[in-house]
């Protein structure tokens, strides 16, 4: 990946050679479609099995095959799992980007490359390892057509030697990767050994980046956010899912369908779920509303362009008060924007999506555990508040590999909200109103179609109805209705997942962040303390509408930096609107929006620089 | 005027013991004489005569004059007035959630053939068990008379504007898209429409009925090809349609030489007595040909064009449990703790 690539010509002598023990980032630059993901996962798993905290990030193009792709593995003895801005070890296998990739490195970094690329002449301040990939792969893979795939395992072996991976763990990781394909495993193991042997013979010195076994991953799992969210949906009891493929959300429904096929069939093989690949996102959302109206737990997942298309249905769902769970796995802008790059760009859009006066419940998972837990919670909230609920994930959280504690089995039964059965209606002697506020919380009672009581049925439509659900265009009926909807939403503030005070600092600075920015903020807190002696407090948001605790946090701090992964500081603006001008004046905005996951260094620099301007 | 004073007869009850009044809805707000009102009446009749249980009946619609009508029939059942052109998706979700429901969707020619064309075609592909009715008048009524995509070339608006775009034939589209019961009728043809609707309620898949339904306000004048006069002058029935529900005696004679007997999945019989054409309702290609010829000659051809009683419906294709998904208890939809443990172990 290229940032501003200035040619560095510092002398080799000035380069730091201090060992980076269990604390470096390794980036593999290959060509999309070359099968390098298997190799990268073997590396990632090996580190994990050696007990070293890891994260794995895939930076890939909108392309099937042929364009550049990068996979970055970070090893961090401190447990930092955000993207690290600097690359310490580069595996350069893509001729197209190799030059730029090498020029972007910090002095002292290491480069393993395919011999014909001849990268060593580019800079003198790097450590180079040149391997003849083609020569090495030929003897271990006699079948020419498989070589392209097996070739990538050469670097696994070479890296394993150079950074000190335990070979039995490499082999175990490989076996896992090719669990049921012994032939493939054997072939790839041959390539790993060839790389290992060549590196050991030609580069006996250990690299600056080194690994040593730790005990920090025991009991942990490695999972992608989309798989975690899918598990949340399954254990929430989803019965209808409708979706339309869109990166980076497709794998959420694909994981979910895989899980459901495996775990949600009856003894005679019948499905307790219906999964439909719809013709578009409008249809997917319509199916969810239709199913939810009928009393099923229904969901869809999509990304920004998808919620654009769903916006009309979401408005109807809001006004007709139909539960729905919509995952928005955010990415950068339009389909011809940077569709495979990460962003938190739909925050303001989702919060108020659709026509008229609409305000939604938006959940903001910050970890893969929360993709699972807030995924579960979303169904309860959607039914409790009888309204569409968004879960805003993003590409970084959803498609990258994260370490996590095993997920907790839900202890509570589900919350189906206010539903009147035929018996309830009997007791009420049929006197009820679909849109009547009986309890003063704005949430009315609903009946499920199929309810056999003679007074059970109602006609679902938008806001043109009175509290009995009968068609009305009377001014008072309309205002009563939309005021109740607002009351309902206000009541969600203290019910939605509450913000988490992740760190109680010292002094007058606060940080507010959400979603996938969380790991970078945690690391940045350490940098700010160690490098500048600043100890901000950090409040992590988990939902919109905002809980009262958020205003309390802002009140306790003179300056609060709101971190957004979008250009305009969308969460900053939502907070400003919510808190009002006086308290809002304490808010400052830090924005990261280049399509890459946010890193701690960028946050630290941005906060430091704004503090300078303030003081 | 008759002067006899016999006491009023007790209302006729259907096989569920319900009077026809139980199948009515609220008072229509459409124009007097609107074809759509006649269709609502036929739906009331069909549901009453077939003994449809209002509790297990759903009525859905999109947006437009046509889509207001579900409020005017079977008032005891649940209804959903959704968004423009997207009723098929709402119906799909609803039927998947509760397979025990009889669902009937009402759309218009604007709602179906323009904004909703994508969902319409995909609905036909899936063969969801749904009766889909297009109340087809060739114009957008609620927005004051613009042409829709089913308006014929040369049809004239009240203001004198002449339609220059070719119409879409929803029946041909439905057949091409995989629909399993495709028919056209006329709101003014009580008997044929009622018979087709009754057969539709017995069908195990998507039924697509295009009902020519004149708009008395915007499209009932000289020069319109969707006016009462034009349709009455040009209607040609493909068959004489009769229907024998499964719970009635089917020992009625018919001549296999002139009548096609279609046994439906529930044992009902749809009988199509051939009129002018020698027509096989299981032959999609022939149906398309006949529809094309009628279009060329300017006829309004009505009848059942295509029926396939064998194709599994969408719920059957998905192999769902018998019990409605919406009513499955928690222990059937939340896998046990051991499953989470198993998944977690696989990720460790």
Biggest protein-protein contact in the assembly = A-B, 70 and 59 residues
**Structural class assignment of chain A:** alpha/beta
Global Rg of chain A: 27 Å
Rough outline of chain A: globular
Uncertain parts of chain A: 1-14
The beta-strand count of chain B equals 13
Helix content bin of chain A: 25-40%
Low-pLDDT residue spans of chain B: none
If you average the pLDDT of chain A, what whole number results? Answer: 95
Strand content of chain A: 15-25%
Please estimate the helix content of chain B. 25-40%
CA distance, first residue to last residue of chain B:
89 Å
Question: What kind of sheet is the major sheet of chain B?
Answer: 8 strands, mixed
| Quaternary organization | heterodimer
Strand order of the largest sheet of chain A: 7-6-5-2-4-3-16-9
* Helical stretch tally of chain B: 12
- Overall geometry of chain B: globular
Mean pLDDT of chain B: 94
The number of helices of chain A is 21
Order of helices and strands of chain B: HEHEHEHHEEEHEHEHEEEEHEHHH
Describe what you observe in this structure.
- The complex is a heterodimer of chains A (615) and B (348).
- Chain A is an alpha/beta fold.
- Chain A has 21 helices and 23 strands.
- The relative contact order of chain A is 0.09.
- Chain B has 12 helices and 13 strands.
- Chain B has an 8-stranded mixed sheet with strand order 2-1-3-4-8-7-13-9, sandwiched between helices.
- Chain B is globular.
- The relative contact order of chain B is 0.12.
- The model of chain B has no long low-confidence stretch (mean pLDDT 94).
- Strand 17 of chain A pairs parallel with strand 2 of chain B.
